Amino acid sequence: xxxxxxxxxxxxxxxxxxxxxxxxxxxxxxxxxxxxxxxxxxxxxxxxxxxxxxxxxxxxxxxxxxxxxxxxxxxxxxxxxxxxxxxxxxxxxxxxxxxxxxxxxxxxxxxxxxxxxxxxxxxxxxxxxxxxxxxxxxxxxxxxxxxxxxxxxxxxxxxxxxxxxxxxxxxxxxxxxxxxxxxxxxxxxxxxxxxxxxxxxxxxxxxxxxxxxxxxxxxxxxxxxxxxxxxxxxx
Length: 235
Prior knowledge:
This protein has six helices and nine strands. The chain is α/β, with parallel strands linked by helices.
């Protein structure tokens, strides 16, 4: 298993470069930078990826090699806004246990660790994402624990649950909301304005709005809202 993890980390490092996150420059991640973004990538249920997204073929290559869209190589708008919010309001996570759901690159998890969380767990179903979390956490001098697999049928035990960009696909949204509603502590999400969004009504309250530099979106920037779960009733 260690060899598999090392191979995945080598893959992440070989196909990305360490760069500051546009809206959260305090954090550096291994990213496919905007100059390496694809053109005309089919959506496949991915946030903001469509015929108007600009760039070249680097993400195509990653997609083909990894077998799925490399969410872990992109600074998605929801994660950027949520990471910014956490760093600007460290009291949200300071001294608490934190789960970063569908972590991707680990951006939000790293922000929570930098803001003083007692323990940060980053979850994803993609082994390359978990590898990216490892290399990115080390690049930022923090410790993040990884949790592999689908957690959505369970109940989060952490005191704070964070999730960036989890409402772009209807089947995922139907499972995410009950999972978040079962959390016993604070829940924050980052959700960009998109024509196709499955954010449920009456479940979240707005706590911040950001204009975030966009990657693989239809515009150069996205209005992105940070929401707090306002009810713990399963929907």
